[in-house]
Design brief:
This is Aminoglycoside phosphotransferase domain-containing protein. Helices cover about 50% and strands about 10% of the residues. The protein has about 325 residues and is α+β, with helices and mostly antiparallel strands.
Length: about 325
């Protein structure tokens, strides 16, 4: 990961001699040199601020100062290369100020869009991830400090094993598949930049219609396309199977990458169901908050993703059997 921020990018910090701010307004004044004119209640972990000089910024906290330094270093390096990420206005301790990218998420945009608009929005979202990857390739010093994500076989085995655990927890016959072959298929070397947890709530639609990816808490090196599985596994993804295939074909011309993304998306959907069925199995992730309509949509997408895949074909019928059992839990 990015460990030594100072050696990677030049970040402006408040003077150590400055008095430590005691509230968000004081911190904002210390970092921006101007007062807060308006402040909105927190939403999705973000507080929106209007400054006296007309600037709009977001404020949010991270678990530790180390988390902040790492994320700020990444965003600064990506932004310097023109990536569609927020600009860092300032940071101190566990608090970060970023330029306001707009509160509208791609998830909200999908919910309100018609079929054509949703497909266009999906295409822009995946393209923005591609631009972030290209930007990191232009920052070799920052990229050299990243480590691998999900590169150990034990990690891949756990992803595949959820198919079995969920089946047993729900009293269903497990899907007919080859766990070893699927495990091997989702493993990749750590040589390309990728973000983790790329669900649609973390992509913002800016006023000019472009998509900006925010909330970069997890990132590293892997195959380089796995983050595109996040949108496909999002309960707010409304594209049909045909539209999804078109968007993926445009974003990933290589068939091998296309397969990796659809398999990862299928396993991410199963992971969400696992967090509904037994949250204790995923202690590092919060319980999935799904309603009946979302469960049905995800199950249908899981079936579509598995259809025609030699390694996941056995999950198509299993997905149909899964739907009523999971729906009963979320009612």
């Amino acid at each position: 990961m990015l460990t030594d921020v100072a050696e990677t990018v030049d970040l402006t910090r408040p003077s150590p001699a400055a008095p430590k701010p005691t509230c968000l307004r004081d911190l904002t004044r210390a970092l921006t040199g101007t007062d807060v004119a308006e402040m909105t209640p927190p939403e999705q972990g973000l507080t929106r601020l209007m400054l006296n000089d007309g600037r709009r910024v977001f404020a949010f906290r991270r678990a530790s100062a180390d988390h902040v330094r790492r994320e700020v270093a990444l965003l600064t390096a990506l932004k310097a290369q023109g990536a569609p990420v927020p600009e860092v206005v300032g940071f101190r301790d566990t608090m970060v100020l970023q330029a306001d990218t707009g509160m509208a998420s791609v998830a909200e945009g999908m919910a309100e869009a018609d079929a054509g608009e949703a497909e266009d929005l999906a295409q822009r979202s995946l393209h923005a991830l591609t631009l972030c990857r290209a930007a990191m390739d232009r920052a070799p010093r920052a990229k050299a400090r990243l480590t691998g994500l999900g590169t150990r076989r034990a990690w891949a085995e756990r992803q595949v094993a959820r198919l079995i655990f969920v089946s047993y927890d729900l009293g269903l016959t497990p899907p007919d598949l080859d766990p070893e072959a699927l495990t091997t298929a989702i493993l990749r070397r750590s040589d390309r930049f990728v973000r983790w947890q790329a669900d649609l709530t973390k992509a913002a639609v800016t006023p000019d219609g472009s998509v900006v990816w925010r909330d970069w808490q997890q990132f590293g090196l892997r195959g380089g396309c796995e983050d595109m599985a996040g949108p496909l596994a999002d309960p707010n993804w409304t594209l049909t199977a045909a539209a999804t295939a078109r968007v993926l074909a445009d974003a990933l011309p290589q068939v091998e990458e296309h397969r990796l993304v659809t398999r990862m998306a299928a396993l991410l959907i199963v992971s969400q169901f696992a967090r509904v069925v037994d949250p204790t199995r995923a202690a590092s992730a919060p319980p999935a908050k799904l309603n009946v309509a979302q469960v049905a949509r995800l199950s249908a997408r899981l079936r579509d993703l598995c259809e025609g895949d030699p390694l996941l074909q056995g999950c198509s019928d299993w997905a149909e059997r899964l739907t009523p059992a999971v729906c009963e839990l979320v009612q």
